[in-house]
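Notes from the 1:1 (GR / supervisor)

We went over the backlog. Supervisor wanted to see one worked example end to end before approving the batch request, so GR pasted a single chain during the call. The sequence is below; no edits were made to it. Supervisor asked that the structure be written out right there so they could see what the output format looks like.
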Amino acid sequence: MINTLDHEFLSCSSGSYFFITLSNPAEYLMVDPRSFIKPDTYSRIQITPFVKKIDSRLKWHSPEARKCYLHNERKLSIFQQYTEMNCNYECVLNETLTICGCVSFNMAYLVATSVKICGLAKKSCMVKAQQASYLPEMQIICKCLPTCSVVEYEITYTSQYDDWSYMKSTNIVKNNARGATIEFVFHKPYFTAYISTSIVDLNSLISNIGGLISLCLGLNLINLFEILYIMIKMVSNYIVHMFDKI
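Structure output shown during the call:
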């Protein structure tokens, strides 16, 4: 439950709202997904988790082969924990600092105090640096692969009007306050887990190679018997032909 005085609402052109956003605490805070909650409403936020993992046999492959990083396999210079989003954001920050010689105001707390903050005159430069950081050649340099174990969430919002006067009668909120009720629930009592595995593992590869070698050897043995049969047939025909002349 959230409540506030009228003058403490987030003011928008169409009215006053509560502003909420959901994000991974290990990642750089992004405003998406976000929602504007109207006062005097009941909102239910349904969360659907998706778990992605890799087969244990893929851990011995290189990150380039498995297309992901294991836990603590990749370190970042700014963020303590590696995620694909943190890596991309750090790539944008480094590219902005290299091209423009400064960083945007929302990146200021991530760098040293001696680093300059870009003003409006550097806006076009910052946009150019951000676009350049997502080019294929920069992605090769940044190497921002996803993590091999990922938990993602799908968010669904549903809202309906609530009787806020009931909340006032419980003395939980002040009489001059307005507010909203927000409930976080899981959409389903279970979640879907995706496991990445190799189409052809080492055992299958050895079996396929052995099968091909066996097939080739089998064909060679058959050909050998066919050659011997033909030679014997030719010799026998020659002997019979010689006796016929006698």
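Supervisor's comment: The CA atoms of residues 223 and 229 lie 10 Å apart.
Batch request approved.
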